[in-house]
Amino acid sequence: MSSNSHIEWTDVTWNPVAGCTLASSGCTNCYAMRMAARLQAMGHRKYAGTTRKSGGRYVWTGRVNVDESSLSAPLEWRKPKRIFVNSMSDLFHPDVPDAFIQRVWKTMIACPQHHFQILTKRPDRMAELFASGLIQAEPHIWVGTSVENSEVADRVKHLASIKKATLFISFEPLIGEIKDINLKGIHWAIVGGESGPRARPMEEAWVERLLEICRRDDVAFFFKQWGGRNKKAAGRELHGQTFDEYPLELEA
Description:
Radius of gyration: 17 Å
Number of strands: 12
Strand content: 15-25%
Strand order of the largest sheet: 1-2-7-8-9-10-11-12
Helix content: 10-25%
Structural class: alpha/beta
Largest sheet: 8 strands, mixed
Number of helices: 6
Shape: globular
Mean pLDDT: 95
Distance between the termini: 30 Å
């Protein structure tokens, strides 16, 4: 239902939803597809039918499974954690019912000792649910979107429309240059290159430009990795140092 995470900016992952569909070019080499295929092959019911083999690799089938049994997991963790919500899917995928999203939200609200980090490639739906009142902002629930290149930069506008929440952007995998972007009102940016066997390269100038924008717009900057086939060898230093900044907590 959950697992300790090797992702540098979080402590643990929590996956009440499994399965997804590709949303944009940043999804092409999605690590979650490969992992879901392994879990499906091992007989994990949550991942049943979520992937299929195509052209020598595993891809999403489009099936999305909700996992009722996982909803209580954060309630059992007494020690405060940073929790990445749905590393293996997208909570705001169109096939996840509004009512189930509300149940996930209810669990998070009941666990103020944690910080929940929700990342979606569908911030338009997330913003609509906030606007409708079906979900609400809480100081310990951080909401974010992925922006891998300038082609999907409009996602930031949807995210920025959400009020009284800690907002963040994951520029990972950064596969294209983003010359300029308005990050006013955004609290945190994660930047990283793609990793894995088919990793696309990230240029240093792209990272430099995003650091400049974060400094200009007063956004906390977290540099996750250079990526590549061997991300450990490539490391995560920029200018000879690591950038592990987090957003300041907002007042309720």
